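Archive entry. Fields below.
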Amino acid sequence: MTAPILKVEGITKSFGGVQALRGVSLEIGSGEIHCLAGENGSGKSTLIKVISGVYEPDAGRIEINGQHFSHLNPKEAIGLGIQVIYQDFSVFPNLTVMENLALNMELMDNRKLMNYRRARAIAFNAISQIGFDVDLDERVENLTVADRQLIAICRALLQEAKLIIMDEPTSALTKKEVKALFAVIKRLQARGLSILFVSHKLDEVFEISERYTILRSGENVASGNTEELDRKTFAFHMTGREFADEYYKPAGVKGKPVLSVRGLTLRGAYSDISFDLAPGEILGITGLLGSGRTELAETLFGILQPDSGGIEIDGRAVKIRSVKSAIRRGIGYLPSDRLTEGLFQPQAVDRNLVITTLDRLSSRLGFLRRKAIAETAMQWIDRLSIAVRSPTLPVRTLSGGNQQKVVLARWLANDLSILILNGPTVGVDIGSKYDIHALMRKLAADGLAIIIISDDLPEVLACASRILVMRDGVFVRELDPSATTESKLSELSTGIA
Amino acid sequence: MISMGRMTKRSEPYILAAIVVLSLLIQARSGQFFSGNNLVDLARSLIVPALFSIGCMMVIVSGGIDVSFTAIASLAMYVTDRLLLASQYSGNVILAYAISAGLGLLMGALNGFLIGFLRLPTFVVTLGTSSLFTGLMFGAFSASASDVPPSIARHGKEILFTATNPKLGLTSNMPSQILILIAVLLFAFFLLRYTMLGRGIYAVGGDETAAERAGFNVRGIKMFLYCFVGVLAGITGIARISMMSYADPSTMLGMEMTVIAAVVLGGTRVTGGVGTLVGTISGVALMTILSNSLILIGIPTYWSRVFTGAVIIVGTGVTAHQIRSTRRRHTQPQKATV
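PREDICTED_STRUCTURE:
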């Protein structure tokens, strides 16, 4: 390892009575891509804020480029070449690309007047550093998320960054954009910059980083070379739990299919889709984005109408013309974007939990029965082990996994016979992911028929009792998860051998 | 360079087009719109709302809202008026402007302190202080319509030129207060476009956290804004009573809603971050034409209020719709190219 650009030792920090960091250490070599991993609440964000000078640590030492500090302020940190790219990128959506790039510089130089010619020169210099082609006069709100991120990166480069800290940089990007970002990161590395890549996504850690540090409950649990890390140890370090590889074997599919789909076609999305689904089964449907998987799910839930083909529920031909009719027929759907489609983010957890069953929880005159509501909410929190300090906290304070459980609970409260989950663990940390998987298996064992749509291949392998691979709108193969592999699945869904 | 595509997304062209169409329509029906005296009358009615709208726009751009500026203007001008009357001052009107602006500054600073430092919500704060200032005026100062001191009266008679309408034999005087409006507009233009403070106002309205991280003094910016609105309100108060030649404490109260509507009509985004002086003044102009000139084509005054209301709903509706459709375009999931 090269000489460290950053070395922190024994950092502790507490807020009120809560110990966020308990003697954490981290060392990053110059020109190194280092991954900082950990579940929500592990102390990752607190550590970043200590390094960037936002928080003053209670104890510990910070060493940057050989200089020692007990704490920093944000301006000092920037002066030492430390730049943080926050999850929200900290850009001004209403201002132009040029101003977004130049304003921070001008403020650092204590300018009082705005000189547009100078600003344009600064901005041009910034984008040419990574060869980013963008209209400097466009408002940032009209750019894609990936472009906004590049703007944040260019801005960091302007201030002579030596270490760029990226806080969960891929959470809002598509696969293609992630690839482009990784190319940019490699380019920065080639110029001698160090990158601290904060993530809880295993694949990314493996793909991009050379060394890693894993935090759990505010303590170091592991660090080393990424090459020597494998999936299982990573999951263990992140959660402190052992996860056995699991397959779902239905204890005997119960009777006749509850759902039969015959020759279903929606032009431009999918064609000639046929399958049966019996109670107790978990049917995995996998395929790339754009393979028609989401449109198929939305058709079954009555959001889209098929051009031809038929759907049978319990052996009777039905037309699902609306979401309401889908719900009446016992179909539940967990959309892939739970943040915008599933939850009332600012509202309390208990209110979110009971929203679908308010009819049952109100008196004959239409008044809410508060006690019944509180009891019902507590039952669901217990049953799905939702980690929340109080049911009256807003849903947005929960982690992704727990939010997903709240959405699930709402569906389960209605008498469901078919549950469709679309990407149920996207953006969810490992521990919650396993919990959700276990919950799915349990629900299926209790007689629910489940369809899980996911491009997370290990997830499909671990949960489904049968896998259908979708490509360009058609089912290309049906597979038995215990007799197939990830690479086989990936070949089939991309069509590349 | 601004491309055509970008032009159609802005609201200024639409509102300017609306003004042109409306003026041509009134001109065609009455032949009076483009007469010298009508234009001077319009300019005269525009001065006070336009002065208010400049500060109001800046506050909305920063992501806030201020409903207290008319109350500040009323109290500041009323106290100034009584002070000067009591001291039998008969010197230059500059002193009247200075006192009123100073009182406005104090009241604006109270807003700025509550909003910038105690981080209270702007609407609630200014609604509260608005009530406080009007209450003080009518309670503590038992305000009622009063004469103006000689300095202000003289100032009110200063006219730049007189426009006559030979056909109808009507004359209208262009008041010197229009110069104040022009000066404030130039000042605001320079401030908003060429100073870091001005860009900071836009930055705060775009994303307050990002502004803080970038190193803007967010508290200071807010303090400045509400102080600026206060000073501007104090000046506007004196301009108003000098043009009316008597100090009516309730003459400006209630104008705030029309001014806010004009600002929003002029393309200022209610959620902050976007707004221009050209748009704002156009919004005020359109509202002034609606309330002043419809009478030229025989539409009674109360009907002009109906038109004003309709224009506000349609105008702000169009802006809101534009924003929503741009958003939707950018949140649509991208189809993967496999």
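CURATOR_NOTE: Chain A has two domains: 4-239, 259-494.
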